[in-house]
Amino acid sequence: MTDFFKGIPQIIYEGPQTDNEFAFRHYNPDELVMEKSMKDHLRFACAYWHSLAWPGGDPFGGQTFERPWFGDTMELARLKADTAFDMFQILDVPFFCFHDADVRPEGANYAENTRNLEAIVEYFGEKMEATGLQLLWGTANLFSHRRFMAGAATNPDPEVFAFSAATIKSCMDATHKLGGQNYVLWGGREGYETLLNTDMGRERAQAGAMLQMVVDYKHKIGFDGTILIEPKPQEPTKHQYDYDVATVYGFLKDFGLEGEVKVNIEQGHAILAGHSFEHELALARELGILGSIDMNRNDYQSGWDTDQFPNNVPEMALAFYEILRAGGFTTGGTNFDAKLRRQSLDPEDLILAHVGGMDACAAGLKAAAAMLEDGKLEAAREERYAGWDSEAGKALLSSDLASIEKQVREKDINPLPRSGRQERLENLVNRYL
């Protein structure tokens, strides 16, 4: 153990009535929900970047956090890893996630970056073996360094494309070596600021070529995990090629990769795209590409991605309802892509933020399971569309306009509107919360 979290106890479940801040009220990892433990349903993961690497800055101000591991040396990178695994064990999360730049110092070139990453991967491997912790997913940071200011795969400079491809390979190798269950592609700057200097067709083709290389390399090295794309609208660029689930699916279909790649959906990104979290999850479920989630929330009074820890149980209940309808996670999980507020300076803040988020997710999961098991919401949905299950309804979809027009005339079809019962269903949902 390092000294950073000194005095903070192991977090255990004590139930809803406890007054202990450092305890779970709703997250009981062994509690069965729909015949599966909460731990296996939720598959919690800590995000290395926000929890360990973020300095507390925002668009208008710099670093507010002072962490003993901040700095660009391998010694400090190992101290950061020591502290990270202390946190993972205090929270008893089964997984973590990382970008390459989160865990290793920036080198002078690609070769040094890779040596640094490989050394930390060895260190992680020892810690994972000792603790039983697993890697939910790895990814490459292809957005922070100035070389990526015009994108990575979509960059107008082929040398940046090449550097990015090599970096992805090294990160896929690291993920594979650590037994990662997924590999994520996050296109933070894969977009444009202005069409005046952008060839959209060329850039989409480059992104498609890069993704095909990733899929090919996955099979070459025998990586059994899932390749995930994380949809992201705008911010920091004006437009991004992976705007939302629908855009990503269209891209995958265009390049024939819809059977190879799924999505990692973030709550905050869904809001920035003008959708709800459950909308994005439901669409991914319907399209068969739901893979994993990044759990956080945005401040609805801000127009940017604030990455706050989740605390809205009704929102999470509807999100986990869609996940349960999809059959639950396979290789995916619930990663806290969330960061402290820049005024939350203490080590206790970092632990308690996760405790609150885990409890809120657990409460949402239990409400979602109760809704699904009760069946009233699904019964109401089925009743609304029951006409389409009749022979006449089924025949309509394989008919033609002229035949349908004749049928409407002969039977004098003149339908009256029927209530969608929205408020009644909203009241129903609230009974489970």
UniProtKB/TrEMBL annotation:
Q: Where is this gene product found?
A: Cytoplasm
Q: Binding positions for Mg(2+) 1?
A: 230, 266, 294, 337
Species of origin reads Sulfitobacter sediminilitoris
Family to which the UniProt record says this protein belongs: Belongs to the xylose isomerase family.
Binding-site residues, Mg(2+) 2: 266, 269, 305, 307
Main location class? cytoplasm
Which EC numbers does the record give? 5.3.1.5
Details of cofactor binding:
Binds 2 magnesium ions per subunit.
Q: Which SUPFAM superfamilies match?
A: Xylose isomerase-like
Q: Name one GO biological process term.
A: D-xylose metabolic process
The protein's matches in NCBIfam families, at most eight in alphabetical order, are given as: PRK05474.1 (NF003998), xylose_isom_A (TIGR02630)
Note whether Isomerase occurs among the keywords.
Answer: yes
Query: Which stretches make up the Xylose isomerase-like TIM barrel domain?
Result: 114-276
A cellular component term from Gene Ontology for this protein is:
cytoplasm
Q: Report the top EC class in one word.
A: isomerase
Q: What is this protein called?
A: Xylose isomerase
GO MF, one term, reads: xylose isomerase activity
Looking up PANTHER family in the UniProt record yields: PTHR48408, XYLOSE ISOMERASE
Q: Which cofactor does it need?
A: Mg(2+)
Keyword Cytoplasm present in the record's keywords: the answer is yes
